[in-house]
Amino acid sequence: MKILIFSLAYHPFIGGAEVAIKSITDRLPNVEWEMITVNLDGKQKSSEKLGNVLIHRVGNSKLDKYRFPWLAYKKAKELQKKGGYNIIWAMMANQAGWAALKFKKKFSQIKYLLTLQEGDSELDIWWRTWFMRPLYKNIYRKADKIQAISKFLAKRAERMGYGGKIEVVPNGVKSEWLGRLDYTELIKSRNPRQIITTSRLEKKNGIESLIRSMVDVDGQLIILGDGSLRNRFQGLIGDLGLNNKVNIVGQVSNSEVYQHLAESAVFVRPSLSEGLGNSFLEAMAMYVPIVGTAVGGIVDFLEDNKTGMVCQPKNPRDIAEKINYILDEKNKEEVEQIVKQARELVVRKYNWDDIAKKMENIFKGL
């Protein structure tokens, strides 16, 4: 089986979608994998093998994301002449999906799988695609099959007019997060007043509300991540007099995330929209109680008072109330039960080995 992947980004530029591709392709070595992606900084090799994937990069800057449908389509036609693919796999209904759509129109006999990973709200997507709405809907409608990482995204595909079968297969958690952990030993190293979030510093993740909630929390918040709103958030921290309570650490390595989670008493992200929310799953794998909003794909794993606590979006006081409840020592036994149930859910449902097998079945069924 030979599969061509269309993805706007790939290693060394890593996000949830890129982790998913690598986690799946690493576990399916019998598939012949190729990929077309953007040379986002112009410094990467035009062609190289990473893991099981032969990567072809087009363009030479971030701006070439917008030219990707044409650049990738041209490259894909060249590659098709050399061998031929059984399946094309588009990572998200963006320019990657548009490139796959163009290729599908030319080579209709090749099966087209679309994966939905988007965390943006439908309103944000509408503003970006209103001028090309019929074409955008066809990215969904012309797929032979759609795989969505959450029920929320599966319903979006239906609203876009897709009439075929939709498979809900989530992203997973790295195996090292799911290894044997002694809960009793783990909590000994915890800072009982440390709150953590791992997040891109963008509007959709609700970090402003989390910062404001710290006015009413007796604890320290560390923020792992970077983004366009970092300077604004830093100013807000100063304006609220929270310099001693809130620290924007910035982007850190995966191992550092792991260490910070191990030391934290609660994970919070009051998202306004979310495709799934892998950062929550990582915290759950580390027995860290989570606080999140009931939006998007979060509802697939967050059940109030059973696998975490639900807070209201854009409501700093409610966020603070949920954090304080978890930090209160008198609620220790209840919180312990919640984190153990959350951990069991992640181990059972969100491990990459099982997810890769489900994806393999999807490929074989096309």
Strand order within the widest beta sheet: 3-4-2-1-5-6-7-8
Helicity level, as a percent range? 40-55%
Assign the CATH topology of the largest domain: Rossmann fold
**Rough shape?**
globular
Instruction: Please write the string of helix (H) and strand (E) elements.
Output: EHEEEHEHEHHEHEHEHEHEHEHEEHHH
Low-confidence stretches: none
For this structure, what is the CATH class of the largest domain? Alpha Beta
Cα gyration radius (Å): 21 Å
CATH architecture of the largest domain: 3-Layer(aba) Sandwich
Annotated CATH homologous superfamily of the largest domain: Glycogen Phosphorylase B
* β-strand number: 14
N-end to C-end Cα span = 11 Å
Count of helical segments? Answer: 14
Give the amount of beta strand, in percent. Answer: 15-25%
Number of domain modules? 2
Largest sheet: 8 strands, mixed
Structural class: alpha/beta
Mean pLDDT: 94
